[in-house]
## 1
Amino acid sequence: MTPAERRDAQARSAFAGHRLFAIVLRHLYVMRTSWPRLLEMAYWPTVQMIVWGFASSFFRGHSSWVAQAAGVLIGAVLLWEVMFRANLGFSLSFLEEMWSRNLGQLYLTPLRPHEHVAALAVMSLIRTCIGLLPPSLLAIALYDFNIYGLGLPLIAFFANLMVMGWSVGLFTASLVLRFGMGAESLAWVLIFGLSPLAGIYYPISTLPGWLQHVAYALPPAYVFEGMRAVMFDHVFRWDLFIRAAALNAVYFTGFAAFFLHMVRVARRKGLFLNMGE
Amino acid sequence: MTPADAAAISVSGLTKRFGPVRAVDGIGFSVARGETIGLLGGNGAGKTTTISMLLGLLLPTEGRVSVLGHDMTTADRYAVLPRMNFASPYVNLPYRLTVHQNLKVYGLLYGIRKIDARIAELADELMLHPFLHTPARRLSSGQKTRVTLAKALLNRPEVLLLDEPTASLDPDTGDFVRSYLEAYAGRSGCAVLLASHNMQEVERLCARILIMKAGRIEAAGTLPELLAAFSRDSLERVFLDIARAPEAAP
């Protein structure tokens, strides 16, 4: 194959690994040169884990519910951090392009929007793993709680929470694309709106009846109920997993379509020409 | 006509409205393969808007725009994006990355094989070596311009769009960039659309010149044709005649 034929074949390809890798590499270069960024990724999850670890120690002696499953609160906070970090990792990588006024440059290369989204998801996974590994190991050392002891169900919980984090990240990236950096703060706070409905630290049955319906329209409610089923009853609830996965498929597809629509709106309105801080 | 036979750039009836403002108003022109064309115009004349539509970053309100026979308003543009590129001193590269890292990332985006060898080749030609491992945020204007140009040449483009490539450069660096572009266009057979405010630059590099005003092409032709049509002895006088003439009613 001649270089020209190879280039044409690459151009026709709807998905190219080298383009995805280019975006991942661009963010890894930034991470590599900034130790405060690496520290930040693990700092807050570790602080949260320590706080809820002490709270667990206290509640174990004062709450029969917590006493039934040691570490349920630590497990909950670590899983919540998975979704939070997945969202933040996705959004921050997108915002990085806005801060460096580079998005327009990227979109005049052969990079396709869905490759960009895939690269942001990979970066989110890397950032989440970096952020969650230290507190999860520290939980073993400090509180004798091993989240990896959940076994295979942990992978199911992790995957569902990652995808939900990406969905929220896609939504905020779409808003930033459309409304500019004025919408940046949403990238930081939007996900917190889901926390009361996720049933992180309490069963969904705690919520008022009408709010339970809202909670069950969101994947994390099933994940945290599923986590409690594993920890309290030692069963993996496939029904909860399937509902979470199905909802995730709906949300991710919907928000990905919304993002692609906003890319087109940005092209129509000329938003790529004057993006930045 | 197949894409293989098509002009490098073909534009017809191209219009872009932002609300009531007609930034580009029904323009048409073409650029042959291997030809260098100058796009002149005052601030707000529509040059950058035109280039943005040629790049596919901006969708036209009306009209057609194609590059190497591919429609830039549809997904068809992905077939031609690896064969074209763009440089402007007004756009930024990720400022935390070094020059080499930036070029590597963009080289990967364009699917360049042996990317390090290509970067070394461009670093030699554009004299990037002294700051190849310097973060982009620490570059001077002249260094940044050369890096942006290197990025634009990574994929050996068949169509190169340049937006004021020598703006804010000292005469020596400006001359270096112009000489390089002249030599590159000559040896590569690349079609170049050069938007500029620098009359000498356009006179030196461009076979034909388009002069825009208020979103329209007010004059087009070779330098001698323009001088004869306006009875002037310099391109600058022609430009000023057009810029200062009362605007035609829409």
## 2
Amino acid sequence: MANHHENQSMIAPSISLRRRGMDFLVTCAAGGAVVLVLLPLGAVFGYLVYKGVGSINLAFLTETPKPPGETGGGMANAIAGSSLILLLGSLVGVPVGIGAGVYLAEYGRNRLGNLIRFTADVLNGVPSIIVGIVAYGLVVLTQGHFSALAGGVALAIMMIPTITRTTEEMLLLVPNSVREAAYGLGVPRWRTTLSITLRTATSGVITGVMLAFARVAGETAPLLFTAFGNQFWNWKVNQPTAALPLQIFTYAISPYDDWHKQAWAGALILIILIVFSVSAVRFVASRGMLKGAN
Amino acid sequence: MPGPQPVPSAVEKIDARSHPRLLEGVGAGEFADRIFYVTMLACGLSVLALVALIIYELSTKSAITWHAFGWKFFFDSDWDPVNEVYGAWPFVYGTLVSSLLALIIAVPLGVGVAVFITEMSPRWLRTPLAFTTELLAAIPSVIYGLWAIFVLVPILRDDIEPALGKYLGWTGLFTGTPYGIGMLAAGVILAIMVVPIISSITREVMTAVPQQQREAVLALGATRWEMIRVGVLRNARAGIFGGVILGLGRALGETMAVTMVIGNRPEISKSLFAPGYTMASVIANEFSEATSDKYLSALIEVGLALFIVTIIVNIFAQILVWTVTRGTPARAHG
């Protein structure tokens, strides 16, 4: 620091040059950091498309896996299984998450609210594998076998804190005058919250839900010992079920070339499904079609 | 806002007549309000219940090994399911080393990206750059793992590790056969996954530093870098540190990508080329194979330890970030 002040008081061109040189170096370093960070991003997407596109075919999208070592087969059952697990997870996670968010925004200006807010942040940071253990203890041990339901419960636990916090944030953006206007018309509080506040914040809340959805859609760790995986079709909630991320994992660490190719194809499909579902719901929400909830 | 907020029921009835559609089903207003409140409260409480449930599940189901081994469990390096002897030190070690390695790589990159985006990049480039780096956080962990196996590991094995071994082998950190798969690969892939967290938090706290700070330092004749160092980074350092800690929390608990490239061997080696094992990956790999109660209990105890550590790390990080973004914005003499 002392040195720095001396530099400032002297008007020597060489020092000024050193300072400008330092400035230039740091600018280069920061720019270099950006390049270094964008490089893997580009590489991941590049490889996904490059390796994935060549491996996606009709069989991949319509057939179940072949036994180890045989070529061909597909991940259709895993795509279906993922949808089933995500549906179960959303059925539980979305209403509870939105409810908790409504509580925090509309009633949560107190100590309990702060505690819940804090706990939601804590829950957000819990490693997904731990959530898997809990869902295992809760559902798998009780039922006696792996199931899509257990996977759904694990994903629901992961969705709740994200949805809670974004819903709260979005509801707090709705100006109080809107609520007061509703109260002024004699609308009860519950009706105001549902039909006025939540409805005003619909697109924001949906964005939060989709963020949570996108986050859990690619989760693998909590499904390892809950949904477990399955080589065949399964639509039963209480049976072991294949999931796309699980299948990608199994195939990626397998020794077979054909399975590696399918893992890339599966990864590409997973990314496309995530991006597609997120943008589809956002598009619908922005067109106001979901706003006519009542 | 004229009148009290909870409208008396008399007014409700008047309004109900003039706007019947709007007020459909308002009759039992207070009762419905009560039910609505209780339902929302239940949803809110469920968040508390979930964390309580996690703690309960983890602590009761790990009781067997806790009673059998006590604290020794975490410092013993013998993990032998066949003879029912469990020591988790290799996993603790692997988790710590891979996460630290990730931070060493990710912190300069993450902070550099944040500095570039907030202070240097042209205005039109800011949003796309921020969006793109955040996109890194949206890629599922299993896809990072897949990419790491088939792209990163071969690069490490054929180019980077031989070079490191040649020039830095004397440190003892880069010795042995370069397999590609191992601690270094885990550290690198973790770094890639942690960078977006560090850079987005750093960006947030840097934006919270008031513009006058920058202008004041510039007015003293500072170059841009001096302005960033004195005016911005110094004021935001607590928050940046918070972001780093938050990244650490993510790295500690990260499972799939690490499991796919770390080699999964419960060994402790000084060389970063050697395979290792982490707490999260041992759970991922062995949980569904755990046949005895004691084995399962040992794995759940590893989970409990991981849970406690990540919780502490996350709470610590939250507090640090808060002190910058909402507490004391900027002091001239930080």
## 3
Amino acid sequence: MSTASENYIPGHAAAAPQAGAVKLTMILSGAVFALMMVFGLIMRAAQGQWIELDAALFYQLLTAHGAGMVGTAALSGAAIMWYFGGRHLVLTGGIFWAFLGLFLLGVVLILGAIFIGGYGGAWTFLFPLPALSGGAWEAGAAAAFMLGYTAIGVGFLLYYLELGRRIHTRYGSLARALGWNLILGREDNDPPPPAIVAAAAVTIFNSIGIILGAAVLAASLVHLLVPGFEVDALLAKNLIYFFGHVFINASIYMAVTAVYEILPEYTGKPWKSNRLFAIAWNAVLIFVMAVYWHHLLQDVVMPPWMLVVGQLVSYFSGIPLIAVTAFSTFLYVRGSNMTWDLASALLVLSVAGWSVGSIPASIDGMISVNKVMHNTMWVPGHFHTYLLLGEVAMAFGFMAWLVRGKTIARMNGLDRAGFAVYLAGAAGFVTVFLFSGAASIPRRWAVHYEEWLTHDRIGTLFSVLVVLGTLIFVLRFVARLGRSEG
Amino acid sequence: MQPVVLLISLILMAALSAVFVLAVRAARDPAPGPGANAKRTGLIWAMTIAGVIVSVASLREWPHALASTGDALEVNVSGGQWWWDIDTTEIPAGKPVNFNVTTEDVTHGMGIYDSSLTLLTQVQAIPGYTTQITYTFEEPGSYQVLCMEFCGVAHHDMVNEFEVVAAEE
């Protein structure tokens, strides 16, 4: 056992502003994560024919699960980055409340569109599917779904405008906040800490992603109202996948600030920005926006060079992740004599899960492999790895840290059980997906053939463990909130 | 190809996981010395060189290359909610087939499966475009076309089939 003050880096522990808003956001995130996991469990059980589920309802759950998980990953990541950004910047609390309010408005619209309006066009709203449901939902439901996205997008733009404005005020320019002085070898007496480098990069690429997402949302909404208004389907797909890829990646890149800011409390070594770190983040800034073409590798009418870039960047974007973030984590942990509590264990797990998940993603990013893996269960296999064992683990680690107090104690029995159940469940769950992908089982099918049921049933069992582990983490967080010092 | 891809992925994932486990176990060992960053540089170079080799090897022949029209059988496939129409029901084995794929409504994905439900190849069907892929069937038998891109409430019912027959001598 040790205390935070023993290891804590002086000056690192500035009072976190708007901790109440962040804690509320994490309660909401935990609750929605748990609910969406239950939706996932229901879908796996239905595919395994353990329960009967109408296909229309299955696809509504699929839509809610996708939108809910992506949205909540982004929400929790945004709360984490706001919290740690507040250690270095003066952020306006009203902006965060407006962001949260718009997010919740979006959630209401999306849930209404799905469970009242019957919308089941998947979170990717691939043009022109929202307008052509084959009688499953009306245009109004699709419009409500997209207006929900719009509300969430406006909230995120407000959030990033505030962050960008405050970063600019504090550091003079986004370029300096991105660590360009470090890269160029210029003297900088006040270099940006890792959380600010991350915040600057995410502010830039996710703002661009959301604006392009807004463009295709607006076009899709006009198409719903005026069916004669046509949009090129391939252009729309490019915009949707640019937005979607950037947005879900931004959730991880926001949440990783918890690793930068919390792990030093345990290792006693500050996580500092240096030249390599800055180069890695500037590479991420480019890679995140250039890699989305790997979602379109079977859209053979795309210019070939774009598909080549998609394959190359898929692979090379793994270098900053594995050689910088993961490798630095090894160095911080090795010889640190750190105490393993739930927060530190989940945060180290999150870097591992994120890194390990990048391997099947990069392999699927090869055009020749993608021909037989695209849109099979391989795809949820790799993204669940870096979400369940990456971003979501970061969020749960942050939540555990928020209610830890000043004393760092080794995991007790319940924490150990929760960690073990969650890790075993998530690792098993994603491994089954990968085996299913290798067995050519298509993703997003409500009804499965007899040959696939064993996969589905084993996956269902593992998903029960994931839900159990999640419930332990979330209930533990809520129970400890009242007596924590934050 | 799929079993090889799975095996390579699992080996690499297990190796990286093992490195994390070793790092965690080494938390009580001596802290890493100044040589650690040299190892990082070596890792970056190793990943870069491996990436260049794999990229060149996998892209040297363009994976989406089409057979010349003189050598290949042309088969037109159109999709819609929720059906596939294939203009040829019997395809000779051993002869390259150019599939010309269109859609009448939303985006679909044409995935070709063999009788053991293994995915052989696929291509997206995009509104307003004709997409093309080439595939040569080696074995006679029944093959299925499944939809690989979510397209609405009966997406999983969007299945059709065709026969591959032994080539005439």
## 4
Amino acid sequence: MADFNAMELMICVAARNLEDGATVVVGTGAPCAAAMLSQKTHSPNLTIMFEAGGVAPILPSMPISVGDSRTFHKAILASSMPDIMETCQRGMVDYTFLGGAQIDMYGNINSTMIGTNHAKPKVRFPGSGGANDLASLCWRTMVMTPQDSKRFTDKIDFITSPGYLSGGNSRYEAGLPKGTGPYRIITNMAIMGFDDTSKRMKVLNINPGYNRTDIQDNCGFELLWADRITETEPPREDELRILREEVDPHRYIIGR
Amino acid sequence: MNKAVELKQGQNQLFSDPNADKAREFFRNKSRAMVNKVTTVDEAVKRLVKDGDYIAIGGFGANRIPTAVLHEIARQGKKNLAFAGHTATHDMQILVGGECIDRLDIAYVIGLEARGLSPNARRAVESGKIKLTEWTNATLSWRIKAAAMGLSFLPARNIMGTDTFKYSAAKEILCPFTGQKFAAFPALYPDFAAIHVHECDVYGNAHVFGSTVSDQDLAKASKRVVITTERIISNDEIRRQPTATFIPFWCVDAVVEVPYGSYPGNMPYEYFSDEEHIRQWLKIERDPEEFRKFFKRQILDTKNFYEYLELNGGIARMLKLRAIEHLTHNR
């Protein structure tokens, strides 16, 4: 088995979830690396989109901003933010990736604030940006994040971006498009999906070197467990080589 | 939908008037004359920005931003502005550094994407002194689009059920055709917008290359518009390829030629962002007193944008950033 770190594992797992011919809106950092790796391994026809308007660029390097010139370098389309968001709203975008300071058992994400007073937050974060839009409108949302019991919480301070809201059918009843929602939560310890009925987070795979106790101890809410849980396939040699040599040669992301 | 549906509304303040008839009254009196609009940054800001205005900035935070106008707003000490924080990054740093804003529509603020957070903007937002209303990037785009269309709102399918909606000023409505629930977003007609472009003629007919974010709608939606441009081109150039006209003259009140005008931001196909300079901002902002001195030296005490460019490496630095943009710097 090759030597790898948690970030490399998460990126490889995320990349495997993006099938050839799909569309994905990514941000800077790990999601962009996952999409690039996917293109360079099994999904050469994955269409990468950026919310400021760049579509299908040939990325010469990792973008610093989702609107910088790298995001439409030799691209198919340099469009606009409303155009990308409307493409999501029409149902043409399969995947997106999000992150945040807190996530709850229904996959709701907080990237806005810590505290109880919105007008004077204890800690303020940037806010939704395009996160809520992408979580609302893309078919499947994935999250790559380190896991601990503070971040994975049963008391989320602010729902910036919708997961399954309060579970069951509540997301659709709130008015969000049918059939959309969180799909995979990829952590350093495990890969989670969501229960079909309750929409609660459910462990599907355990990453090499971790066990059930580690995973539950580092989660602030009770996790569900799939009937058959297998070990996550570790990064393969070819995935690691491409990730290290072609996707992120300066180790901006995998060096974190 | 047969059962009665409870329609929710966001509880926070709406900082601008979405009334389309009032907007029409304004636009009725806006000049449509195709006249030479070339002026200076100083003059444009004096004439077009008033204390208390609602302002919006084109581009994307630190990409294709009208930096010279932002500096001048701070230099002239404009106060009590409302601001559309539509992925506002370096533009927000400048406006907060100048203590110019007291109302903020938030889609994305205080962060600089992959570069980290702005300590000074964060302090300002956490202080409770700025009124905050939550939105999202798509929502602000569509609010601006609604205004560009001459409407008072647009419906959409995002943000419902979240706290982002709860702390917005959006309202839920039912579609009159399908009965489905939608979020209604109030049109945003900014009092003032500044947009940096690649080239335009003296009348304000402009070309933009690369991702355009919301700028075409922004030019239409805003009551007063200043365009800063990397270079002024002839009207013949515009007429030679009318399909390329991104902003037409009747949207524009003033034109200013500002080469390197997006610095330290990225200008696609021209120059890359000055990451060292932006890092310097983020580092100095950690100490409020040091930042105050830095902001004074860099912006308030410089006579104009060219002095600021000189202070940060001048043409030699610009050439380096051009090479980075064109991927020739390592060759």
